[in-house]
Amino acid sequence: MFYCYKTIKMKNLKISLAMLTIVGMVACAEAPAETATADTATQAPAAPAAPAAPATVVDIAVGSADHSTLVAAVTAAGLAETLSGVGPFTVFAPTNAAFSALPAGTVDNLLKPENKEKLAAILTYHVVAGKVMSTDLTDGMKAKTVNGQEITIGVKEGKVTVNGANVTTADLGAGNGVVHVIDAVILPK
């Protein structure tokens, strides 16, 4: 009889432990997701967030099929990290067609490692420190570029030029500045 009593007592102990484990697991489980109530069901959905501006002026160029040559040049010149920095920067960004209009072999030559400084000088001639929107530009305005030389802005009949290059798309905003697309590569003196 002692054997049967001990067996029954052990079975009860195991069942009790199992029940305590289950109760503990249920009590510690995450609370179920909130269900809709009359108050929450009648609330209007939140308005969609406005699309965010690209993080950097480099992101704008990377996201544009018309600027793959510029992206390659910025990378070769070692300027991608700088232009992805805090800024703000105003970039006058030549298109692929603008680079193609240069004399044959010019781009390939500039992309060579031994011409990194010359390429950087050309590219930084397309960058002005600060965020300059098209509405800030005036005819005859001079702006000092990051390479130290000045560019000249032209504004005639609502059209903007930079050293004679036409601004074809203006005010592409980024978190660290603005990009104005131009149709020519401008060269420092």
**Number of helical stretches of at least 4 residues:** 8
Topology order in helix (H) and strand (E) letters: HHHHHEHHHEEEEEE
Radius of gyration: 32 Å
* The CATH H-level homologous superfamily of the domain at 57-182: FAS1 domain
Strand content: 15-25%
Separation of the first and last Cα atoms: 110 Å
For the record, the CATH class of the domain at 57-182 is Mainly Beta
User: Could you report the average pLDDT, rounded to the nearest whole number?
Assistant: 80
Total number of beta strands: 7
With strands numbered from the N-terminus, the spatial order across the biggest sheet is: 2-1-7-6-5-4-3
- Briefly note the CATH topology name of the domain at 57-182: FAS1 domain
> Regions with pLDDT < 50 over 5+ consecutive residues?
1-42
- Largest sheet descriptor: 7 strands, mixed
Label the CATH architecture of the domain at 57-182. Answer: Roll
Report on the structure:
By secondary structure, the protein is α+β, with helices and mostly antiparallel strands. It has a domain at 57-182: FAS1 domain, CATH 2.30.180. It has helices at 2-28, 38-41, 57-62, 68-76, 80-83, 96-100, 106-110, 116-124; strands spanning 89-94, 127-129, 142-144, 150-156, 159-162, 165-174, 177-182. A 7-stranded mixed beta sheet has the order 2-1-7-6-5-4-3. A hairpin with a 5-residue loop joins β3 (142-144) and β4 (150-156). The model is unreliable at 1-42 (pLDDT under 50).
